Amino acid sequence: MNRIWIKNPLAILAEENAGGGLVIEQDRIVELVPGGKEPSLPCAQVFDASEHVVTPGLVNCHHHFYQTLTRALPAALNQELFPWLQSLYPVWAGLTPEMISLSSRLALAELMLSGCTTASDHHYLFPRGLEQAIDQQVEAAQQLGIRVVLTRGSMSLGQADGGLPPQTVVQKESDIIADSERLIKTHHQSGTGAMVQIALAPCSPFSVTPDIMRASAELAQLYGVGLHTHLAETLDEETFCEQQFGMHTVDYLESVGWLRPGTWLAHGIHFNDDEIQRLGAASIGVSHCPCSNMVLASGICRTLELEAAGCHVGLGWMVPRPTMAPI
Ligand SMILES: [Zn+2]
Fold first, then answer.
1. If you measure from the C-alpha of residue 210 to the centroid of ligand 1, how many angstroms do you get, rounded to a whole number?
2. pLDDT of amino acid 210
3. The CATH number of 58-315 is which of 3.20.20.140, 2.30.39.10, 3.30.450.30, 3.40.50.720?
4. Do residues 216 and 183 lie in contact, with contact meaning Cβ atoms separated by under 8 Å?
5. Which residues contact 228 (CB under 8 A, 6 or more apart)?
6. Reported pTM
7. Contacts of 229 by beta carbon, 8 Å cutoff, 6+ apart
8. Which residues fall inside 5 Å of ion ligand 1, going by CB?
């Protein structure tokens, strides 16, 4: 018997009367206690929550843990997305395994301190030496005890082929797919209580090929895992899609087989009314990233319209926040 009674909280967000708090057994809430009552079963520990507010854990839908280390790089400050990325790609190309481990633990600790209990990360950098980056993230999450949805990101469209990132940070498509499958088989858990899940996440229209978008969608379908990417974050991206693919972002998404449940998008700012309806009809998820959007002046996500249309709207931490003075 290892029950803990979180007793008589100052306030609690629950669907029924739970003024007396709740009982936890192992990693599950097993009882909501009505106000003025006691748990129906004996509890080994009682935590006096009379000065605490109990809420469900927050869910973070988009992040780049490694960027925790480069928040205050002077060259990247006060830039819009494309020049911001171009300032940082060469720095990120030099990341080491130690940096991945440290940034993962730092980002997860920050999230936990802010009330987050489930975090998604979008890791798309695999230069030589970082082949185990996602495996390291799994280890960090397990050490800290937080639930994670780790997305195996990718970049396959380098500058030589009309993309934005330098060749040093892009991978061959066959390598991306092989590693995606390895990570799903090694780490992905499903069902109630899953603590580690893997999803597939080609980075953005301007850094991956349509082929890797299609191949990722097929692999995700095969293994029943989610699909994630950045979409419609900036007007520069919209222009890129029109010039490179001859279509708008949502048409592009549909053309590569992604307009379906299980897909969630980071940012999702520049959609017209018709596109919002199409995204909603397909039950697409959108991670609203207000901090990032503000710092990069990307625009404002139409969260209420997206939600009304049927999209699942969540929040992303996504911090290029200059929280420290530049050095
Ligand atoms: Zn992002």
1. 19
2. 96
3. 3.20.20.140
4. no
5. 62, 120, 122, 151, 199, 200, 201, 263, 264, 265, 266
6. 0.92
7. 201, 202, 203, 204, 208, 213, 258, 263, 265, 266
8. 266
